[in-house]
Amino acid sequence: MKLITKIISLSLIMISSYTYSESNHGSLFSFAENMLEIEGTAPNIIFSSNDEIGEVCSDQLIACFRSDKPSNVYIQAGLQIDLLNTTLVGLMSDYLQFNANKNIDNLKSCNAQVDYLLSTFKVNKAKIYKATACGRKTISQKQMEILLASK
């Protein structure tokens, strides 16, 4: 019975995360386009389980953009909304840069993420996120979730 409850709960979280992101990811893409001053076609956002993300991206990542599949952005389903949106802004920035000039400047993507947090009035999160080089410095997924879930 506990297993069934866990499966149902996880399914609901994944569905709600997917539904919210589906309705919101267009505005996140527009934000990334404006920040980078690069226009493009929105990527396919593929929500997957943690195990699938581990196979497609890496065991250490919750999301990725792969240059060998340049029309897709992969992200773990069920993430906390601030983490989800901030991660998507960064990946969409990577996607836009790669598709425009086959190069990715991590600093530009990081700045877009920080600016996104600032635009949503998450000033403390933006400061801390910038201090971690937007999660690129050694920080665990759990620490990042706590960081972005905090006030």
Question: What does this protein structure show overall?
Answer:
The chain is mainly alpha-helical. It has one domain (2-149). 63% of the residues lie in helices and 9% in strands. It has six helices and three strands, in the order H-E-H-E-E-H-H-H-H. It has a three-stranded mixed sheet with strand order 1-3-2. A hairpin with a 6-residue loop joins strand 2 and strand 3. Helix 1 (2-36) packs across helix 3 and helix 4 (106-119) packs antiparallel against helix 5 (123-131). It is globular. The protein starts with a helix and ends with a helix. Mean pLDDT is 78; it is low at 5-23.
In brief:
The protein has helices at 2-36, 50-56, 81-101, 106-119, 123-131, 141-149; strands at residues 44-48, 63-65, 72-76. With 151 residues, it is mainly alpha-helical.
Work out the helicity level.
Answer: 55-70%
Overall radius of gyration: 15 Å
Low-confidence parts, pLDDT < 50 over ≥5 residues?
5-23
- Output the number of helix runs: 6
Shape: globular
Structural class: mainly alpha
Strand order of the largest sheet: 1-3-2
